[in-house]
């Protein structure tokens, strides 16, 4: 590995930790909040797409998993974009497409797994 790639990897790992902590703390605060209007986007998406009950999704383990997934997506896209030495507009377009593709594919897989588990119980 060259020096620039190593720096990008370290920055991506630091970004992963920061984003993970941000999403996890945000979701736990929303869970403890008395307001039911502040529904977490991931919970809404999985409830609508996979017919999973809200009670099954509202726990700390699920929030840790979604925080991990979100942090992975953001840091992975950042790492890939930093490897490309293209014009900034092309890098932004690739980053946007990659982000949307990862969100739908990873949350689709997670929804299918959770739906199978919730139907077993």
For the secondary structure, the number of strands is: 0
Portion of residues in beta strands equals under 5%
**What is the radius of gyration computed over CA atoms, rounded to a whole number of angstroms?**
17 Å
> How large is the count of helical segments?
5
Shape, per Cα inertia axes: elongated
Order of helices and strands: HHHHH
Mean pLDDT: 88
Percent helix, as a range, is: over 70%
Low-confidence stretches: none
Number of separate domains: 1
Structural class by sheet pairing and helices:
mainly alpha
* Biggest sheet architecture: none
Give the terminus-to-terminus CA distance.
Answer: 48 Å
Give descriptors for this structure.
single chain, 121 residues, mainly alpha, elongated
Folded structure, characterized:
It is a single chain. The chain is an all-alpha fold and 121 residues long. The protein has one domain. It has helices at 3-32, 41-50, 54-57, 60-83, 88-120. The protein is elongated and about 50 Å long. 13% of the residues are buried.
């Amino acid at each position: 590995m060259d020096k620039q790639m190593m720096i990008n990897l370290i920055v991506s790992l630091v970004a992963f930790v920061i984003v993970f902590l941000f999403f996890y703390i945000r979701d736990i605060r929303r869970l403890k909040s008395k307001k039911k209007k502040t529904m977490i986007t991931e919970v809404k998406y999985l409830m609508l797409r996979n017919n999973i009950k809200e009670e099954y999704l509202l726990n700390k383990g699920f929030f840790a998993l979604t925080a991990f997934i979100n942090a992975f997506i953001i840091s992975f896209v950042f790492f890939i974009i930093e490897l490309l030495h293209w014009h900034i507009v092309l890098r932004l377009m690739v980053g946007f497409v990659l982000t949307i593709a990862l969100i739908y594919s990873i949350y689709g897989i997670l929804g299918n797994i959770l739906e199978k588990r919730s139907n077993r119980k």
